Amino acid sequence: MQSRALSHLIFRIQNFFRSCRSLIGGSAALALLLVVGSGASCERDTKLTIAGGNPPKFFMTGSGILTSVRVRGPQKQREAQGEDKFLYWVIEIKDGNNPRSVEKLSPLIYGKIPEGFEQIYPERGEAPPLVEGERYYVRVVTSEANGDGKYFIIREGKVEVSDY
Length: 164
What we know:
The chain is of the alpha+beta class and 164 residues long.
C-alpha cells in the first residue's frame, strides 16, 4: 500500500514539474520544485543533551512538538506495572494546550513543570531528589519528529551522560 501511495506521489510531482517547465522554463521549474520540496521535508529529529548538576537540565533541539518527558530511575517509586513503578518524574502536555516545539521549551529542569504541562508522576508533591551515583534514564517523547533518550548519572554534583 505504501509503495503505491509513494508511486502516486512521484507521478503527481513529475506531472507538476512538466506543467511548470512548459509554463516557465526548465531551470525555473526545477528551482521552484526544490523550494517547494524543501519546505515539505523540514522534520529534524530531537537531540537531547543533559547538563548542569542536581537537578539536571535537559536541552533539546529539533523540529518535534514535546508531548512528554519521562525520567526513570533504579528505585521503585510506586506499586504499578512495568516501567511505571520506576518513573521518578513524568510530565505531559495538558489537553487542549497549544503544542510547542522542543526548542522553544528548552532547557527543561528536572522537577520544574513548564507552562502548558501537567505532572503525572509523582501523583502528588515534588519530584524525588536524584541520588548521586545512581543511573537514570530520561526520554523526551515528541510528535512530528522522533524523540530522544539518554542515560545519566550525577557524580560530585555534575551530570555525566552514560551509554547505558
